[in-house]
Amino acid sequence: MDVLGATPTRNLALELARVTEAAAMLAGRFMGRGDKEAADQAAVNAMRLVLSSVDMNGIIVIGEGEKDKAPMLFNGEMVGNGLSPDVDVAVDPVDGTRPLAFGRSNSLAMVALAPRGTMFNPGPFLYMNKMAVGPEARGVINIEKSITENLKAIAKAKGKHIEDLTTIILDRPRHDEMIAEIRKAGARIRQIPDGDVAAALMAAMPDSGVDVLLGIGGTPEGVITACAMRAMGGEIQGKLYARDEDELRRGREAGYDFDKVLTMHDLVSSDDVFFAATGITDGELLQGVRYYGNHITTESLVVRGLTGTIRHIHATHSTDKLDHLSSLHY
Fold first, then answer.
1. Mean pLDDT throughout 30-39?
2. Within 13 Å of residue 290, how many CA atoms lie on the same side as its CB?
3. Which residues pair with 67 in a beta bridge?
4. In the predicted model, is pLDDT for residue 122 greater than 50?
5. How far apart are CA 260 and CA 141, in angstroms?
6. Do the beta carbons of residue 306 and residue 271 sit within 8 Å?
7. Helix (H), strand (E), coil (C) string for the chain
8. Per-residue pLDDT, 111
9. Which pLDDT belongs to residue 75?
10. Residue 69 confidence (pLDDT) above 80
11. Nearest CA to 232 among 91, 136, 118?
């Protein structure tokens, strides 16, 4: 990609919206049908096909297969049509396979791009402790400090009392101690079953009612979130989290530092990033896919790091024309 001050790059995020729209439209057919694997496979098939048409020479750094054992869009796979620019690619065809399978909210299809070599590669280490905030609290968080100290800093930066803050955290037993500390500090808590990328993005958006994401979630999702945060003006910090002593040992042997604070620059070291997400099921961030017989509607969030542009795209897709033009059946 071109560097800052050079000729402006194409806005690849607009092309990525086509990728996430296709994934959402196919995966959305499986809402509530109880089959996570089929829903994920439908999204992977759609995403892989449309990615192949994008003018880029991409390599998947964050993909399927490591965590969900999907047969395509695996880490190291080349995507795009082979033309420039050379990019790292992060994909999450369905962020929230369980909510989708059981007809619950906040399931998304997501893709992010960054210049080649600028995305953090977590390898097989899939979990990290994360903290994410919006623009008002950027620069005041420190994941090495206590939750209480961070809540005080966030409240001060936002001109609030701690009691005014709303935290959002995955509903997991591993978070019991964190939740106890948040309660003791006096902040409000929203526990969510899945989908911490959407939760982090909500923390970065005004009037969402969310002030900070806390807790241990996916490392791949953390990298994708960092790409979006680059454009949205927020901040995310993380530290790799080992689930047991064996994973910690293997990680250290592979050269991973579980004590290092991963800043947004560590997670993605370029501002020349692109991110797109399309709602699959209804959520507070995006509306889910709607089917109307001869057409489908989608809602997407599209951001570009260099310009800080954030777009909300409401699209209507003709199923008759799509089925005629595409090998996919929408």
1. 95
2. 12
3. none
4. yes
5. 15
6. yes
7. CCCCCCCCCCCHHHHHHHHHHHHHHHHHHHCCCCCHHHHHHHHHHHHHHHHCCCCCEEEEEECECCCCCCCCCECCCEECCCCCCEEEEEEEEEECHHHHHCCCCCCEEEEEEEECCCECCCCCCCEEEEEEECHHHCCCCCCCCCHHHHHHHHHHHHCCCHHHCEEEEECCHHHHHHHHHHHHHCCEEEEECCCHHHHHHHHCCCCCCCCEEEEEEEHHHHHHHHHHHHHHCCEEEEEECCCCHHHHHHHHHCCCCCCCCECHHHHECCCCCEEEEEECCCCCCCCCCEECCCEEEEEEEEEECCCCEEEEEEEEEEHHHHHHHCCCCC
8. 97
9. 86
10. no
11. 136
Residue with the two structure tokens 């192949």: 52
pLDDT tens for each residue of 269-326: 999 999 999 999 999 899 999 999 899 999 999 999 999 999 999 999 999 898 888 8
Q: What's the CA gap between 140 and 215, in Å, rounded? A: 18
Distance (Å) of CA 35 to CA 9, 30, 126: 40, 7, 23
Q: How many CA atoms lie within 13 A of 63 on its CB side?
A: 22
Pair of tokens at residue 160: 């609030």
d(C-alpha 111, C-alpha 93), whole Å: 8
Q: How high does pLDDT run on average in the chain?
A: 92
Q: What type of residue is 226?
A: A
**Tokens in use for 251?**
């990680």
Q: Give the amino acid at 174.
A: R
Residue 6: predicted pLDDT: 44
CA distance 212 to 174: 18
Residue 65 pLDDT exceeds 80:
no
The model's confidence at residue 2, banded by pLDDT at 50, 70 and 90, is very low
Radius of gyration of the chain (CA): 19
Confidence bin at 5 (pLDDT 50/70/90): very low
User: Does residue 124 contact residue 243 with C-beta atoms inside 8 Å?
Assistant: no
List the structure tokens of 64: 């399927």
Check residues 1 and 247 and name the one with the higher pLDDT: 247
Instruction: Residue 61: name the closest of 133, 118, 141, 21 by CA.
Output: 118
CA dist., res. 190 & res. 213, Å (int): 10
